[in-house]
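ingest -> validate -> predict -> emit
validate: passed (alphabet ok, no gaps, 182 aa)
predict: started
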Amino acid sequence: MDKYINAPFCSEDIKDLKSGDYVYITGTIYTARDAAHKRMYEALEQAQELPLAMENNVIYYMGPSPAREGRPIGSAGPTTASRMDKYAPSLLDLGLKGMIGKGKRSKEVQEAIVRNQAVYFAAVGGAGALLSKCIKKSEVIAYDDLGTEAIRKLEVEKFPVIVVIDSQGNNLYETAIEDYRR
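emit:
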């Protein structure tokens, strides 16, 4: 089922999403990859403030290529989400409501998704050039020294994703295998 939601998310939007739904996100999302997650995790360990509030926000695991002339960003495909699994539960516990990446998530992340009524989306790997067309603005807001791994604030319009793990813990990667076997 196709759904259209705005980011940052509200709890009602998340509750209505089901594993397997096609979702189009419009609004503000943030990018962060391995190095940025490590820095945020270290900041939390040292009781320092994070460069962005997690409450109701969405993090896209992506490091863009350089922007072409006249575009806000270059190719913007997802990276493997499991590399952020060590850090994700802490961010979810701070109110993060959505993560976008590709691939499976650990049991700890799945439990944190359910505990915090959040959602994990997949974006189509290999379609970074197409995904970039949904990004209307891109601005580095933290960790500029990390280059492509800096934290960016993105304004997106109808950014296409698929719900992999919903707020109830239903996991498309698991149910799809069961459906295929039938």
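The domain at 2-178 is CATH 3.20.130.10 (fumarase).
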